[in-house]
């Protein structure tokens, strides 16, 4: 049992070590307030406070005498749900960051700082220096060069203000059409940017790639139409009932790089040496032909026949542009 | 039999006990007196499993960035060597002069959220706890904005660990154009993401020169050796990014894009207009860019450089061959 989920035990320990100095600095804070500050359920705060109040150091007698333990105002805690530490031992300050924690924050900082209206280079440099000084050990150098999409500023403002956005969109079937959406969230995955929004004409949630948008503009006075109880699923791409399944073979080494399409742990069966066979759900063949043509030597569509044929024809058409002198 | 002490309480008690001691505690002191150990301690020996528990707990605590020291004391007249353990408070506490403004907290929140998936997500979560511990409220809640960084390459974690430990690594690397994986011995200095892809920068000990490797080309496991190295002066992450930026600027492709296609939308927004309606697009890695271009099939015609033309044609031909014929 001691070995079970060591990460989660570490997280719990980190929580206790973070909570004690906060409680000392915020004498009499309510459970609700502390929970909101740490972004955890109230019960988690209560459990932690009870554990802290019973903990301490062995002390000179090595018997955990009352004076060697934390103590709280129990009446206040039990009757008013407020936390006041009345006796403290051993810790009073926030812990330092580990080298890895600092490295993660510094790299994340560089990434978000490249986005419009976030921060300038000076702020990033200043924070990097602070984090480095606050870390126990030199952070591993992890850096990110991020490129921002020019459309991002306007779209982000529209999300914050809840303004309707209108733009020309090239959809996955290569058709351009005007879309009118209620923007909900801007998300990114490394270099790619997405807008998740309520599509007013389709009356459904949709995900749009920023780099397929053109002529983005706001329609400020348009009232919102979406249902109030709408909730954004965590995953950007949602499978749909109309999706169809195709069988593909993938070079085993390339599997992790296809996690966006196949999920983290796809079901596979062995194929020829070094390759596995698996199934992929797709909305239409337009996306599949691009996926396969961009992974020569790593991914082969096996069946159904029309899917294999679509990839074949796409690559043939691509080659033809080099072979036919009239297209040059 | 006393009520079982939770893992969380044992680890918390160990941290408190080691922070409270100036001179350090011996392993026997700890096992016999600290909450969570003492309940299971047998004064007459036979504490092997408890000792193993202590070893694991030490690692878990150090992993959080807590400076748990072991002090080796000279052996007493040939008797058993004593090791004493402690956590020096001065190195545990966040330096008193490190503070963050509400704007900085908001930016760091976003930086930590960027890692909500994968290898550095645990670190980011714990770093956020430590930030919360300071009691500073974030400036504005970050609604509707969710940047996300990922490190899916299997090589990422072992390389990050080796950079932290300053240990030489050995890995197989498949250079484009070569059909054989070659072993590289590298003193790793930094991990950098450029163009949405992770690279490791370091000293290639075989070539005796600084090199930057793409993580996606590392074949098989990264092996961390016991061999250490001196970190050279300078900022390796910045140098690596500068190097990649220079390569990016020097590599320029001239493309003809079919209007109103996916290629025109995506490559068009990455590139700059050139003569005769063509588009100039920069890239860092010819083989990877050729994959990207091949995915667009007939929507792109590469005009120069010739190596890129050849690479794209080769890929398309391979896709045709792999998907060709009537298999009936």
UniProtKB/TrEMBL annotation, chain A:
Keyword tags: Proteasome
Q: What cellular component GO annotations does this protein have?
A: proteasome complex
Answer whether the UniProt record assigns the keyword Membrane to this protein.
Answer: no
What this protein is called in its record is Proteasome accessory factor C
Using the record's annotation, list all stretches that form the WYL domain. 152-217
Residue ranges constituting the PafC HTH domain according to the UniProt record = 11-133
Q: Does the keyword Ion transport apply?
A: no
TrEMBL record, chain B:
The residue ranges crossing the membrane are none
GO cellular component assignments? proteasome complex
Q: Where is the WCX domain?
A: 262-319
Q: Please report the stretch or stretches of sequence annotated as the WYL domain.
A: 155-220
Question: Which Pfam families is this protein grouped with?
Answer: WCX, WYL
Keyword line: Proteasome
In its keyword annotation, does this UniProt entry include S-adenosyl-L-methionine? no
> What is the protein name for this chain?
Proteasome accessory factor B
